[in-house]
Amino acid sequence: MGAVRKIPMRKCIGCGEMKSKREMIRILRTTENGIVLDATGKKNGRGAYLCGSEDCFQKAMKSKGLERALKTSIPGEVYESLKKEIEKLAEK
Asked: Does the N terminus or the C terminus of the chain have fewer Cβ atoms within 10 A?
C-alpha cells in the first residue's frame, strides 16, 4: 500500500474558495516591490493566489484583496498588465 500524498491547497483572494495549488495563478511581490505573475510557483517573494477566471480577478481588484494579500499598494497600470497576462493564460 502506497503513501497518500498531501495536495497543497491555497485560498483564492477573489472568490475565497480553497483549491489545489496547481489550479491557481500565483501573483508575486518581489523584493524590489515589483508585481509579477509567477507561472512556476517557485520564485522568491510574497505570493497571493487567484483562480484562472476573469471574475475572480475583478473581485480581487474591487475588494482590494490583492493589495491586502501582498501588503502593498498597487497602481492601476499594474492591474492592467496583470489582467492582460491572466487573459493570455485563460486562452491556453
From this structure: N
> How far apart, in whole angstroms, are the C-alpha atoms of residue 12 and residue 34?
21
Q: What is the rounded CA–CA span in Å between residue 51 and residue 73?
A: 21
Closest CA to 75 of 35, 37, 45: 35
Distance CA 68, CA 77 (A): 18
- The answer to whether 64 and 71 have CB atoms below 8 angstroms apart is no
CA 15, 36, 28 angle in degrees (round to 5)? 60
In this structure, are strands 18-20 and 9-11 parallel, antiparallel, or unpaired?
Answer: antiparallel
- Number of CB atoms found within 10 A of residue 78's CB: 15
Q: What is the value of pTM for the model shown?
A: 0.83
The residues that bridge with 35 in the sheet, in sequence order, are: 29
Distances (CA, A) of 4 to 15, 24, 81: 29, 22, 39
